[in-house]
Amino acid sequence: MKTITVFKGDGIGPEITDAVIAILQAAKAPLNYEFFNVGAAEYERNGALIPKEAFTSFERTHVLLKSPITTPIGKGFRSLNVTLRNKYDLYANIRPAKSNDAVPTPFSHIDLVTFRENTEDLYVGVEYKINADTIHAIKIITRQASERIIRAAFEYAVAHGRKRVTCVHKANILKMSDGLFLSIFKEIAREYPQIESDDKIVDNTCMQLVMHPENFDIMVTPNLYGDIISDLTSGLIGGLGLLPSMNIGKDYAMFEAVHGSAPDIAGKHIANPTALLWSACMLLEYLGETQTAFAIRSAVDAVLAEKKYLTPDLGGTATTEQYRNAVIAHV
Ligand code: NAI
Ligand code: MG
Fold first, then answer.
1. Where are the beta strands (DSSP E) in 149-195?
2. Is the pLDDT at 183 greater than 90, yes or no?
3. How is residue 313 annotated by DSSP?
4. Ligand 2 centroid – CA 258 distance (Å)
5. Environment class of residue 322 by beta-carbon count within 10 Å: exposed (0-12), middle (13-18) or buried (19+)?
């Protein structure tokens, strides 16, 4: 048995967390759970977005399933995600985008994964005012951070039987910074002769992604391009309710849906828990529980293919609970 930390967030967070935990339990996932309320509602109750005990739990378990939170506006908060990424050095942001027949989109054979560097680049947010009309922003690329994200992408390719890793960059213009990232990519690629490797300039990548997304496999990229193209790939498979992600570092791993707390549908029992559920499957795989993950993924595929218990975001009329029960029946 492995113990994991679970953050129940705001809006639809508690509803989808309950559904996911029920499915994990039905699938007999060998997990114990430490639950914490986090986010805006918790802040109103106790004066902290993330209570101290919640941090302590994550520091003990090293594995976190996090549901979305509402970012309080106008109170000077730093993004909670940026806080967690920096505090626990979650350097790799991994976002798989895969087509599903239940979600009609112009493309049907997309199966790609973005590896976004999560700690540096323009995202360090260091800006200088030179004078009232001139601002400089700092882009940071280091060998250490580049090596570990690029290696993570190749290791993932090997572990998951993938064919190709593509480096996405702008080294034609940013010759020193992106140039360093690209040259490290080429060095590391030589260590993995069994995996094809190539590189593409980021603007060309965007064009090709919307024309021939099925041609992409794994992409690895500095932080800012990764932020943008991974949202683009999300759009290609159509549907926020289906997008999982993981943020991992050397010692810690955090798994969450890509979507937010969806306050417009909170409490209505119509939220789609699949993105968080698939994030939980990635968590199981990370812990080596691949069979349980496979059982849950297969059950979800079956329920989606049946089209009988789809939530409204996928064009159906099922409640979160009906969908949950259908998945449990297949598990
Ligand atoms: P959102 O992702 O919460 O919602 C966008 C639209 O998608 C809404 O119409 C919503 O109903 C729908 N939607 C999202 N997830 C769904 C699901 N699982 N099932 C069915 N429909 C779903 O984005 P929005 O409205 O921009 O942000 C709401 C709040 O969430 C904000 O406070 C934002 O800061 C926060 N947020 C938190 C994130 C996190 O904790 N990781 C990520 C993104 C936003
Ligand atoms: Mg983003």
1. 164-169
2. yes
3. G
4. 9
5. middle
Mention every residue, 6+ apart, whose C-beta is less than 8 A from residue 323.
19, 272, 273, 303, 309, 310, 311
Q: From the alpha carbon of 262, which atom of ligand 1 is closest? A: 3
CA of 38 to the centre of ligand 2 (A): 21
Please check whether the two domains, 1-96+240-331 and 106-237, share a CATH topology. Answer: yes
Residue 180 to residue 178: CA distance in whole angstroms:
5
Of residues 108, 100, 101, 97, the one with CA closest to residue 235: 97
Short-list 192, 198, 193, CA closest to 151: 192
Ligand nearest the Cα of residue 228 is 2
Q: Whose CA is nearest to atom 26 of ligand 1?
A: 260
CATH hierarchy code of domain 1-96+240-331? 3.40.718.10
Q: Residues 94, 37: contact at Cβ < 8 Å?
A: no
Domain boundaries, the chain: 1-96+240-331, 106-237
Q: How far apart are CA 32 and CA 283, in angstroms?
A: 13
The pLDDT mean for the chain works out to: 94
What's the rounded mean pLDDT across residues 268-273? Answer: 97
Q: Superfamily for 106-237? A: Isopropylmalate Dehydrogenase (3.40.718.10)
Supply the ipTM of this predicted assembly. Answer: 0.97
> Which is nearest to 75 in space by CA: 53, 102, 47, 100?
47
Q: Is the pLDDT of residue 246 over 80?
A: yes
CB distance 27 to 331 below 8 Å: yes
Q: Which two tokens stand for residue 160?
A: 């998951």
Read off the tokens for 121: 């680049």
pLDDT for residue 18: 98
Atom of ligand 1 nearest to the CA of 275: 18
No. of helices (H) and no. of strands (E), the chain:
11, 12
Is the separation of the CB atoms in 296 and 330 below 8 Å?
A: no
Q: Which residues contact 188 (CB under 8 A, 6 or more apart)?
A: 147, 150, 151, 154
